[in-house]
Amino acid sequence: MPYARDLKSIRRLIAAHKRWDLVFACCGVLALMVGLLTFIALFVDMAIDGVPRLNWDFFTNFPSRHAAQAGILSAWVGSCLVMLVTAFVAVPLGVGAGLYLEEYAPKNWVTDVIEINVTNLAGVPSIVYGLLALGVFVYQFGFGQSILSAGFTLALLILPVVIVATREAIRSIPVGIREAAYALGATQWQVCKDHIIPYSSAGILTGVIIGMARAIGETAPVITIGALTFIAFLPPSPIKAEPPFLSFEWLTSPFTVMPIQMFNWTSRPEAAFLQNAAAAGFVLVLLTLAMNGFAIWLRYRLRKNIKW
Questions:
Q1: Alpha carbon distance 53, 187 (integer Å)
Q2: Phi, psi (5° rounding) for residue 58?
Q3: Which has more pLDDT, 246 or 165?
Q4: Which of 11, 223, 260, 307 fits a 20 to 30 Å CA distance from 70?
Q5: Cα–Cα dist 90/161, whole Å
Q6: Closest residue by Cα to residue 84 from 227, 266, 215, 273
Q7: Going by C-beta distance under 8 Å and a sequence separation of 6 or more, which residues neighbour residue 50?
Q8: Long-range own/partner contacts, residues 114-120 (CB < 8 A, 24 or more apart)
Q9: DSSP structure class, residue 216
Q10: Measured over all CA atoms, what is the biggest interatomic distance in the chain, rounded to whole angstroms?
Q11: How far is Cα 255 from Cα 253, in angstroms, rounded to an integer?
Q12: How far is CA 278 from CA 44, 63, 68, 140, 273, in A?
């Protein structure tokens, strides 16, 4: 009899836990559907307003006082150039810092303080980075209100994300791989170069692309450092016809980006400009979704090709 009573109490306890698991699962699905349905509703509404405006002229025209003639040429070119500088700065620094903290840094209180600050920096509001860049890059270093300043600013913004993603990707590598490499006489750098970085490249690239997808939609930092709300010219081309074939004049050129162009159009009272803003927002959301989708596909392909 005591055994039967204990068995019944255990069954009741398991049944109660299963009910709570079901309640938690329903709450999670409900929260997911609220966020997902809200995004879908906003995206569909933006698509209904903006898709009729999408044509070749919209992508190849400069902004204009006339809504029907306005385009996003200077905005998407500026966004691409700013993202180029951002990737060139953030990726080497972020991957290098993550590799150092995970593989080389001694485990002491200094490293703990650095790790805590890196984690906290990932949650700092973007306007703080804009104010920092205004004082350091624009005024102190004299870069001015240029593509170079914007690229450095957004690189600082996504640098903690790249560092955290790099460290998490490196931690996922089994310790046995390191031990086997060391047992065969490999140096620490050879272990990192030939094993750690290749095996963690999927997670690192995923973090980089997600960080870039965040940076391309940021508005506050680039407004703070002086991005133009109306620009009817393109920066100088990075490629020249004569030697040395590369030009860096575009780094010091004034610029605008897609979020700034949308902000400019939404401030206009005419309905046609609001339609232009919806079209630009639709393009920006598609670009962000494409970058995140590419990150998922890339992670899948790289992990599939890795042989432990």
A1: 58
A2: -65, -35
A3: 165
A4: 223
A5: 10
A6: 215
A7: 275, 276, 277, 278, 279, 280, 281, 282
A8: 118/160, 118/163, 118/164, 119/160, 119/164
A9: T
A10: 96
A11: 6
A12: 11, 15, 14, 37, 9
pLDDT of 75: 86
Instruction: Please determine, for residue 15, whether its predicted confidence score (pLDDT) is greater than 60.
Output: yes
What is the model's pTM?
0.83
Query: Taking 80 as the threshold, does the pLDDT of residue 21 lie above it?
Result: yes
The DSSP string of 72-87 is -HHHHHHHHHHHHHHH
Which amino acid is present at 11?
Answer: R
**Phi and psi (nearest 5°) for 242?**
-105, 160
Helix/strand number for the chain, H first, E second:
12, 0
Distance (Å, whole) CA 56 – CA 71: 9
Burial annotation 167-194 (CB, 10 A radius, 16+ → b, else e): bbbbeebeeeebeebeeeebeeeebbee
Q: What is the residue whose two structure tokens read 């002229």? A: 57
The pLDDT tens digits for 68-82 are 888 888 888 888 888
Q: Within a 10 A sphere around the Cβ of 253, how many other Cβ atoms?
A: 18
To which residue do tokens 């903690």 refer? 160
The DSSP code for 63 is: P
Give me the helix-helix angle, 271-305 and 2-50, nearest 10°: 130
Q: Among 208, 218, 102, which residue's Cα sits nearest to residue 159? A: 208
Confidence class of residue 305 from pLDDT cuts 50, 70 and 90? low
Query: Could you tell me if 105 and 111 are in contact, meaning their C-beta atoms sit under 8 angstroms apart?
Result: yes
> Taking Cα atoms as reference points, which of 154, 130, 128, 124 lies closest to residue 225?
130
**How high does pLDDT run on average in the chain?**
83
Token pair belonging to 164: 């955290």
